Amino acid sequence: MARSHLTLAALATSAVDDLDLVATSSFGSAKGNDFDAALLTARDGRHFMVRVPRNERAEAEQSADLVALRAISAGVRTRLPFAVSNYVGQTPVSGTRAVVYDFVYGTKVGLGRLDAGPSSLAASIGSAIAAIHALPTSFVADSGLPVLSASDSLRSAVSVMDRAGATSLVPPQLLGRWERATEESTLWQFQPTVINNALSADSFLSADGVVTGLLGWQDLRVGDPARDLAWLLGAPEAVADSAFDAYHAVRGQGDRHVRQRAKLYAELEIAKWLLHGTETRSTEIVDDAVGMLSALVDSTLNDVMNPLNPQTIETMAVSDVEALLDRTERAV
C-alpha cells in the first residue's frame, strides 16, 4: 500500500533536523512507480523531495544514486549547466529508508516533445550531455565508482551480442552487422569519459526550452560516451541531428565514431530486452523483442546512410587516376 504524502512528510521531518514544513503533496503516479514520493514546502520557501523505495530494485537504485550524488562535489557541479539534486537526510522505515533531497525544478522531458534546431531543447540536451563528458574523471575513480576502458566497453558489447546470438532468436543479418562493428578496431579507439550511463528523455528536466536539471545518477561511471547518446537515436532524425550537432560543438570532433557506437548500443538494447525475456521466461517479452529485431532487420537493410562500420574511401591506383583524368579531358 502506498504511503500518503502526510506520512512521507512526517518521515522527512524525522530525517532532517529543524525541517519546518508548511505544505506537502504527493509526487508522481501511485501506480507503476518504484517509489512513494512527496513534494515538500518549507516555511522559508525551499522545496524538498522525499522518497521511499517500494521494492528491492528501487532500494538498490536509491543506494547507488546516493553514492553518486555524494561523489558529485560542489566543485564538480559548478561545471554543469544544469542542477543536480543534493542529499539532505534520511531515516529508517520498515526495513528500508526514506531519503530527502532538495528539489530540482523543471518539467520532465518526453521524447515526443523534443524539437529540432540549433536553439532547440534537443540541442540543449546535446550540450548538457557534452558537459557531463567534459567532467574530470578523477572524482569518479576517487569515489570507487566503475572506471571502464575502451576495451572493457567492447567486451561488454560482444558479451551481449554473443549471449543474444546463443538464443538462436536473433536474425543472422543483425548478428553479422554487430560482429562487423565489434571487429572494426577504429570504431573502438576513443577516450573514455565521465558518463551517466542511464540516460533517457525522462532523465531531463527543462524550462523555456533549456535543460534545468538531470535526475538519476545511479550508474555514474567512466566509460564510453556513446552510451549516453544512444537513446537519442529513437527520436526523429532531425531531433537527433540537433542534439549531436550541439554535442560536437562543445566536445569537438575528436571521437569521430561516437554516433556509430551509439547506434550499435541502441540496437543492442533490443538484444538485452530479448535476454531479459529469456531469463525471466516471459513469452510476452520474448515475442516483443523478436518482433523488434525483425523490424530492425528491415530498417538496417536500407540504412546505407548510417552504417555501423566506419566508411573509408577506396584508394585509387595511379594508373586508375590517370585513366580517369584522361576520360574527363576527352569529355570536356
Explain this structure to me?
This protein folds into two domains: 5-103, Phosphorylase Kinase, domain 1 (2-Layer Sandwich), CATH 3.30.200.20; 108-301, Aminoglycoside 3'-phosphotransferase, Chain: A, domain 2. Helix content is 45%, strand content 16%. Strands 1-2-3-5-4 form a five-stranded antiparallel beta sheet. The chain has a three-stranded antiparallel beta sheet with strand order 6-8-9, with helices on one face. The protein has 332 residues and is of the alpha+beta class. The chain has eleven helices and ten strands. The N and C termini lie far apart (82 Å).
Q: Give the strand content.
A: 15-25%
Q: Note the run of SSEs as H and E.
A: HEEEHHEEEHHHHEEEEHHHH
Question: Sheet bearing the most strands, described?
Answer: 5 strands, antiparallel
What's the CATH C level of the largest domain?
Answer: Alpha Beta
Classify the fold: give the CATH topology of the largest domain. Answer: Aminoglycoside 3'-phosphotransferase, Chain: A, domain 2
Strand line-up of the largest beta sheet = 1-2-3-5-4
For the record, the count of structural domains works out to 2
Structural class: alpha+beta
CA-based shape = globular
CATH superfamily of the largest domain: Aminoglycoside phosphotransferase (APH), C-terminal lobe
Helix content: 40-55%
The low-confidence parts are 312-318, 327-332
Mean pLDDT over the residues: 90
Query: What is the level-2 CATH architecture name of the largest domain?
Result: Alpha-Beta Complex
